[in-house]
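During the reporting period the student researcher (J.K.) took over the structure-prediction task from the postdoctoral fellow and processed the backlog of single-chain submissions. One of the processed entries is reproduced below for the supervisory committee.
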Amino acid sequence: MERGISGQYEVSSVSGEQVSAFVPHHLPPNPPLVLDQSRQLLLERATLAVGRLDSISALLPDPDLFLYTYVRREAVLSSQIEGTQSSLSDLLLFELEEVPGVPFDDVIEVSNYVAALDHGMARLREGFPLSNRLIREVHGKLLSRGRGSEKQPGEFRRSQNWIGGTRPGNAHFVPPPPARVEDCMASLERFIHDMDAPYPALLKAALAHVQFETIHPFLDGNGRVGRLLIALILHHSGALSRPLLYLSLYFKQHRSEYYRLLDVVRASGEWEAWLDFFLEGVDQTASGAVRITQRLTAIFQEDSRRIKGLGRSGTALLRVFDALCERPIVTVNEICRRAEVSFPTATKSMQTLTNLGIARELTSQRRNRVFVYDRYLSILNGEMEP
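J.K. obtained the following C-alpha cells:
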C-alpha cells in the first residue's frame, strides 16, 4: 500500500548550503499494515522457520559451542557489507593472542562486532531493557577500537551525516538533523516496547530496522547496529532463546534490492514490499541456520565415533577433540587449557587427529603450532558464499 511519503523534509544550513533532511513519521505505519493472505502465509513460514531454529538449538548438546562460531560468522558477514576484507579464519586467528600477523584494521572491526553483540545479549539476559541506552552501549563497543573510534562511540550524533555523495548537498539521502535524533530514537524505543501494537516480533523487528536506518543516529556504524537491532529485538521478545538469526548474508546477497526497498518505504510509505522481502529473508536465513546446525552435529558425531573406535586410548583424545569443536582454530596451548591435559598429551592427540584427517596443522613451526578443524570451517564458509 502506498501511503505517501513516510516522513517530512526539514531544510537546514550545513556548511553554508541549504540541505533537506528527512525526518520519518513515528511508527507504526498509518494506515496499518496490509496483512493479506499471501503476506500472512509469508509471516507464518518465517515464524515456523524461526521456531524450528529455536527448537533445534535447544536440542544441541552444547548450544554455546555452535553459537561461538556462528556469531563470528555473522560478524564477518556484517562487516563485509561495510567493506572489510577479513575472513572467519582471520578473526579466529586474531583471537588466538599467541598468533601474530593477522590483518589488523579489518579484523579489529569484526572483533568489535562480536564484542558489541555479546554485550547486548549479556545485558538483556541480566534483565536490562532493550532501550536507547543499550543501543548506545552496543555502539560504544562496536567503535571502541580501530576505524571509527574517533566518531563519538556510544553517543548519538551532534552533526549532520548523509548517505552517498561527497557532502549533504549532493547526497543520495540525508537523515534527520542532529537536533531531531533524540526525539526520533525516543519514538522508536516507545514503539519497540508498545504492548498494544498489533504486530508480532518479526514485524516489529522489520519495521524498527528500517526506522533505525532512516534515523541513522550515529556518525558511523549505523548499518551494523541496525542489523544487530534485529537480533536484539527477536531475543528480547522471546522469539529466539539464543541469538541465532542474522540477516547479513541475505542483505549482502540482495544488496541493491535491500537499499531500493528502504528508499521505497521513505518515498511512498510502501512498507508491505519491504515486509515481503524481510520475511522471505527470515525464512531463508533461519532454514539455513538449521541446515548448518544439522550438518555440524553430524560431523561431530561421525568424527567422535571414529575416535571412540580407537578404544580406551581414545579417552584423552576425545577431550582434545571436544576442545577442537569449541574452537575450530586452536593452538596446542589452548588445547591444554580447554581439555585440561598436559602439553605432550595435547601434542600427541593433535597429531593423531591430523593422521585421522580431522585436524590440519596451519603452521610448520615447532612452537605456537596452530591446528584447524577443516570440515567445521568449510561448512560455515560454504554458507557464507554470496
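The committee noted the following: The radius of gyration is 23 Å.
J.K. will present the remaining backlog at the next meeting.
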